[in-house]
Amino acid sequence: MKRSILKISLAAAVLGGFLPAVDMDACTNLIAGKKATADGSVMVTYAADSHNLYGMLTHTPAQKHEKGAMRKVVEWDTNKPLGEIPQPAETYNVVGNINEHQLAIGESTWGGREELADTTGQAIIDYGSLIQIALERSKTAREAIKTMGELVKNYGYASEGESFSIADKDEVWVMEMIGKGAEKGAVWVAVRIPDNAISGHANEPRIRKVNWKDKENVMYSPDVISFARKRGYFNGKDEDFSFADAYGEHDAATRRGCDARVWSYFRRFAPDTDKYYDWCAGKSDEPMPLYVVPEKKVSLKDMQWSMRDHFEGTPFDMTQDVGAGPNHVPYRWRPMEYEVDGKKYCMERAIATQQTGWSFVSQSRDWLPDEVGGILWFGTDDTNTSVYMPFYCGMSSIPSELKPGDVNTFDFDSNFWMTNWVANQAYNRYDLMIPDIRKVQGALEDKYQGSREEKDKALTAMVAAGDKAGYQKAVNEEGAAIAKEATDAYRELGKYLFVKFMDGNMKKTDENGNFIKSEYGLPVYPSFPGYDKKYYENIVKETGDHFLIDK
Q1: b/e string for 384-403 if b means 16 or more Cβ within 10 A?
Q2: Distance of alpha carbon 226 from its chain centroid, rounded?
C-alpha cells in the first residue's frame, strides 16, 4: 500500500545518528524458496496496511475475450478510473493475490525519488492494477515479470517506487520498479531468490549489485542503468550499479521503520543475521543482504507467526519499553513521532500492526495439480490476532463474510469487523486478553492446517477424474464453511472478552474458560489484576509523595 513519510530527527542517544524520515502506512512481504521450506512449497506473505483499508477477499473469474474487448483500469488505492487496455484472448481465475496456476504476487511501496513520479498525465497502470492484470494474464513468475514490464512500457506507470514478490510453484522473484517522471514507462530489475533462501521487503528497495550477465536469475529493463546515468543518480561501472541506492533514498529512519521488519524475520531462522541490527538501527552502513540461507526449514506455521512479529526478543521489542504500558501492549498509535524538550523521537514499526486491512500467506506446491497446489491462507485486520483461513486458487465464489464492506459500517457478519472487535479489546489489556485469543485462534488454525492433507487428496482425485464441477463445489463450500466458522468463533470471542474483562476487572474462570459460579448459582467475585510494578514505580517517579499514604 502507499507509504506516507513523516520527516523526523531522533536524538543520537536513541539511535546513534540523524534520522530524517520514518515510515507510517506500509506493507510487509516475507519470502521462502521451496528448498528453504519444511514441505517444499514456495511461500510468500503480504500484509496490506492502511488506516482506511477494508479487509475483503476479491475474485476475478477466468474468461475468454472476443477480439477488441477492453479492460478498465481502476487505481487500487482510490478507485479512480485510469483508462482502458485491450484484453487478451484468455484471462485466468484469480482469488485475492493468487491465480489458478499457483502464481502469487505481493508488494510494498517505497516511494523513491519524488521527481520520478509520472508527469506525462498519460500513465494508466498503477501498482495494484499491475498485480491484478499480471495475475489474470500470466502462468509463471517469469511470465508475470515480462507482462508487468510490457504493461508499464506500453501504458505508463502511475505509481511510486515499488517492490513486488512474485512466486510460482517452482521459484520466487523480487522485482523493483520506479517511474521515469516526464518519460513514459518505468525502470525495473528482478532477481530470482535461490530455492534454499529466504528474503523479504518492507517499503525499502532491496536489490543492489547483481550479475547483469546472469540471464537465468536476473531480468531488467534495458535502460535501468543508462536512465540512472542520464539523471545523475549513478556514474560508476555497470557492475557496481545498485538499483536500491540509485533510485531509493536510504536513511537510518527508513532502515529502522522498514528493513528492521525483514531483519526480525531473518534472525528467526538465520541467527548470524543479528549482526545487521546495526544497519537497521542506523549505526552501520553495511547493507543487509537481499536474501539469506536459513539454518532450519521454514514451516507454514513459521511464516504465519513471522507475520505476527513485534520485534520480541530484540532491542526493538515493543512489549518491553515504557510505551507498552502496564499491560505490555506491542502497539503504538499514530502519529509515529513525538517531541520532548525540543527533540523528536519515534515509535517502532513492526510487521504486526493495527492498521492492516488484510494479509495472506500463499503456498505454491509443485507436487500437486495447480487447482489444488495453490492455497491462499487469508486473514483480515491485524496479523497478530487474525485467523489464517485456507482458500484454494481455483475457488470461484467468495464467502459472504469476506465480501466488500467499508471501515465506517460495523457488521457482526463481517470477518474483518469481528477480528477488529477482538483485536481492539486486546489493545487495551493485551497481556491479560491475548491468552484467550490464542486459544481460539490456535484451535481454528490447527484444525485448518491439520485437515489439508486429507482435503488435498480428495481434491486431487476429483481433478484427476476430470470432475471439475465436483472440485468447484468442494472448494467453494469448504471456503464458505471456514469463513463462517472463523467469523462466528470471533463473534463469540468478542462477547466473551467483553464480559470477562468488564469494568477493568477479570472474572474468574475454570480450566476450560467457563465462568465460575458459587454453590448458589451466582457469579463469584471477580479478581483485580491491577498494574505491573513498573507502572506503579513510574507513578511515584512522576508524582513524588502526591499519592503517599500518611502513617
Answers
A1: bbbbbbbbbbbbbebbebbe
A2: 33
* pLDDT, position 2: 56
Q: Is the pLDDT of residue 14 over 50?
A: no
Q: What confidence category does residue 253 fall into, taking pLDDT thresholds of 50, 70 and 90?
A: confident
319, 475, 520, 523 from 110: Cα distances, Å: 27, 36, 62, 54
Using an 8 Å Cβ cutoff, are 399 and 393 in contact? Answer: no
Cell numbers representing residue 112 in the block? 523513491
In Å, how far are 339, 427, 436 from 488, measured between CA atoms?
43, 21, 16
The pTM of this model reads 0.94
Grid coordinates in use for 220?
531488467
Q: What is the mean pLDDT of the chain?
A: 94
Question: Do the Cβ atoms of 543 and 524 come closer than 8 Å?
Answer: no
User: Quick one: three-class SS letters along 467-488?
Assistant: CHHHHHHHHHHHHHHHHHHHHH
Would you state the pLDDT for residue 10? 30
233-263 burial by CB neighbour count: b if 16+ within 10 A, else e?
ebeeeeeebbbbbbbbbbebbbbbbbbbbbb
pLDDT, tens only, 85-144: 999 999 999 999 999 999 999 999 999 999 999 999 999 999 999 999 999 999 999 999
pLDDT tens digit string along 352-386? Answer: 999 999 999 999 999 999 999 999 999 999 999 99
d(Cα 381, Cα 421) in Å, to the nearest integer?
10
Q: Cis omega before residue 335 (within 30°)?
A: yes
Maximum Cα–Cα distance across the chain: 91
Alpha carbons 297 and 37: distance in angstroms, whole number: 5
Q: Which three cell numbers stand for residue 264?
A: 526480525
Go through the chain and tell me how many residues it has: 551
Q: How far apart are CA 41 and CA 363, in angstroms?
A: 6
The x, y and z cell numbers of residue 212, run together, are 547483469
Burial of 519 (0-12, 13-18, 19+ CB in 10 A): exposed
Question: Can you tell me the distance from the alpha carbon of 418 to that of 489, in angstroms, rounded to the nearest whole number?
Answer: 9
**Residue 249: its pLDDT value, please?**
82
CA distance 250 to 20: 10
